[in-house]
Amino acid sequence: MPQQTTKDDPIRARSRHFAGYRRLFGLPGARAFTAGNLIARLPMGMFSVSAVVMIAGARGSYALAGAVTATGLAATAVAGPWLARLVDRHGQARIALPATAVSALGSLALLLCVRYGAPDWTLFAAYACTATTPNIGGLSRSRWAHLLRDEPGTLHMANAFEQAADELCFMLGPVLASFLTGTLFPEAGTLVGAVLLTAGMALFTAQRATEPPPQARSKAPSPLRSPGIPPLLICFTATGAVFGSMEVTTIAYADAQGHRAAAGAVLALQAAGSCAAGLVYGALKPAAPRLHRCLAAMAVLMTLPWAAATTGSLVALAGALLVAGMATAPTMVTAMTLVQERTPADRLNEGMSLMVTGLLAGIACGSAAGGWATEHLSPVAAFAVPAAAGALALLAGLRSARDVGRNDPAQA
Q1: Alpha-carbon distance 59 to 66, whole Å?
Q2: How many CB atoms lie within 10 A of CB 203?
Q3: Residue 381: which pLDDT band, with cuts at 50, 70 and 90?
Q4: pLDDT 10s digits, 287-308
Q5: What distance in Å separates the CA atoms of residue 195 and residue 104, rounded to the nearest whole number?
Q6: Do 400 and 278 meet the contact criterion of CB atoms below 8 Å apart?
Q7: For the CA atoms of 189, 195, 196, 202, what is the dihedral angle to 10 degrees?
Q8: What values do phi and psi take at 151, rounded to 5?
Q9: CB 354 within 8 A of CB 345
C-alpha cells in the first residue's frame, strides 16, 4: 500500500496543478469572453501566411510579400498604443469593435488589389489599413487582471493560458490558411480571416459583465517611464524578430522543397511546442521566474532549425521547430507578468500594447530580413536570421535583468 501511494503522488500532484485551469474558467463570464477572443485571435495566425502566399503567388516575389507584411505590422505597432489608450479611457466595446471593422475592410482591400493586379504600392496601402486590428490578447489579459486583481497566483495561470491561446491560434492559423489558399483560391485565407476576426470581436465585446470599467484621463506617467519597462520593450522587439523571420524563412524553405502546402503544418509544430510548454509553465507556477534564463534557452534552441535545415529534410526541420518552440511561451509569460506588475493600473492596456508594439515591430523587421535573406542568399542560410535574433533577445534580456534587478531583485 505505501508503494501505491508513492506511485500515485506525482499523478495527483499534476492533477492538482491543472485543476487550477478548471477553477479559472469557473469564474462568471470567463468562458464566454474566452470563446470570443479565441475566434477573433485565430486570424492572427492566418493573415501573415495568407498574405505571403497570396502575394508571392501572384507577383512571384517573397521579398515583396515580406515587405508588405512588414509594412502592415509596422503600422500596427504605431497605431496599437494609441488604440489601447482609447480603450483604457472609453472601454473595450466602444473602441475595439469599430476598429475591427476598419481592419477587416483593409484586408478585403488587399485581397482585391492582389486579385485584380493593382500596382505594388496599393498592396502596402491596403495592408497598412489593418493597423487598426485591436490587440485581442491584451484586451483579454486586461479582463483577467480586472477579475483577478487580488489573486496574483491565479493571474499567473491566466497569463499562461493566454500565451498558450496565442500559440494555439498561431498553430492552427497557418494550417487553416495553407489549406484554404491551397485547396480553394489564393485569397481564401485572407477572406476567411477577416470574417472570423469580425465575428469573434463582436462576440467578445458583447460580454460586458467582465469588461474592465473605463478609466478617467490618467494622471499616471507613460508606461515607458515605469521602472524596467524600456528594456523589456527592447527585449520584446528582438523576440518578435525571431517570430517574423522564422515564419517567412520556413515558408520559403518548404516551397523550395516542393511542399508549399506543408508550410503551415510545419510552422504549427513550433506553436504546438510553445502551447504545451506554456500550459505546463502556468500550472507549475515557478517561484521568482528569471526572464534572462528563459531567453537563454530560447537563444540556444533557435539554432536547431538552422542546423536541421542544412540536412535538406522538412521532417527534421519540423522536429527542430517543435523543440525550439518550447522556450517561447515561458519567455513571453514571464515578460508579460513583469509588464503587468510595473504598469500603472489605469494604463494597463497601453502598457501591454506597447509591448505588442515592440513585438510587432520586431516581427516586421524579422519578416523583411527573412524575405531578403531567402531571396538573396538561400532558404537554408536565411535560418541564420532567427538564430541571430534569438541571440539579440538574450543580450536585451540581460540588460533588462540588470535594470529590473535594481528595483526588485527577485524578479530580475
Answers
A1: 12
A2: 17
A3: confident
A4: 555 777 888 888 888 888 888 8
A5: 8
A6: no
A7: 160
A8: -135, 75
A9: no
Q: Is 95 helix (H, G, I), strand (E, B) or coil?
A: helix
Position 199 scores a pLDDT of 92
Nearest to 173 by CA among 272, 80, 242, 254: 272
Give me the chain's average pLDDT, please: 79
pTM above 0.85, yes or no: no
Cβ distance 373 to 248 under 8 Å? Answer: no
Q: What percent of the chain has pLDDT over 70?
A: 83
Whether the Cβ atoms of residue 266 and residue 282 lie closer than 8 Å to each other = no
For each of the domains in the chain, give its residue range(s) and CATH number, in order of start: 26-212+225-411 (1.20.1250.20)
Residue with cell 534569438: 390
Residue 407 has pLDDT above 60, yes or no: no
Judged against a pLDDT cut of 50, whether residue 111 lies above it is answered with yes
- In which residue are the cell numbers 515580406 written? 66
Question: Residues 64, 120: contact at Cβ < 8 Å?
Answer: yes
**How many Cα neighbours within 13 Å face the side chain of 126?**
21
Residue corresponding to grid cell 531578403:
372
| Of the candidates 101, 85, 111, the residue with the CA atom closest to the CA atom of residue 40 | 101
The phi and psi torsions of 305 (rounded to 5 degrees) equal: -60, -35
CA atoms of 77 and 225, how far apart (whole Å): 19
189-200 pLDDT, tens digit each: 889 999 999 999
Give me the phi and psi of 222, to 5 degrees please: -55, 145
Surface-to-core class of residue 150, CB atoms within 10 Å of its CB (0-12 exposed, 13-18 middle, 19+ buried): exposed
Give one DSSP letter per residue of 340-357, joined into a string: HHHS-GGGHHHHHHHHHH
